[in-house]
Design a protein that fits this description.
about 190 residues; 6-stranded parallel beta sheet; 6 helices; 6 strands; about 15% strand; globular
């Protein structure tokens, strides 16, 4: 059928036939108390991975190491993947976690890395430059104090969220860094 001769009804039918139902993102979660195993290789690949990289006391989980990343790279290095580091204690700037994220950045995968934290985790003047130059694509800051636990000492924040974001952006501007993007995350997600 000639495109010029198509009626509006014919075009609507054709457009309707091309539509596909939106698919839910395939999410793979790795919990701190888990074993870090990726599971079977068959099945749909994930579009999002959620990682709890530290225990409630702030120590890095046993399975989060180079071997875990090598398996992740082997399976999905060429796939678009959103890796979310959940707001577990000290996870965002923990030296081991930070090192692993920097290593992933060097691999030049089509992955985006999103870090989460509470405002009280990073609201200290000494952390501003580390956040501004971090290897994350985005940092989602929960505008709240980290919930108190017996296993982890919560430090009070020094700045309100907007002030902290302005300070980080000023350092990024000075360093000509476009990332990480800073966003406010609702407290209800976690």
């Amino acid at each position: 059928m000639d495109a010029m001769a198509m009626t509006v009804t014919d075009r609507r039918k054709l457009a309707g036939a091309r539509r596909r139902r939106p698919t839910r993102p395939e999410v793979l979660e790795f919990f701190a108390d888990g074993d870090g195993r990726h599971g079977p290789e068959n099945g749909p690949p994930p579009s999002e991975i959620r990682l709890e990289t530290t225990y409630p006391n702030g120590q890095v989980v046993n399975w989060f190491d180079d071997a875990w990343w090598l398996e992740t790279l082997k399976r999905w290095k060429d796939r678009r993947l959103a890796i979310h580091l959940m707001p577990t204690p000290d996870a965002l700037l923990h030296p081991i976690v930070f090192h692993e994220i920097e290593m992933v950045r060097r691999m030049e995968t089509p992955w985006s890395v999103v870090g989460y934290c509470y405002l009280s985790d990073i609201s200290h003047p000494m952390l501003i430059s580390r956040i501004a130059a971090s290897p994350y694509d985005e940092i989602r800051i929960i505008d709240a104090m980290r919930p108190e636990t017996t296993e982890y000492d919560v430090r009070p924040g020094k700045f309100p969220l907007l002030d902290l974001m302005e300070r980080i952006k000023a350092v990024q501007k000075q360093e000509r860094a476009a990332k990480p993007i800073l966003t406010r995350a609702p407290d209800t997600e976690y």
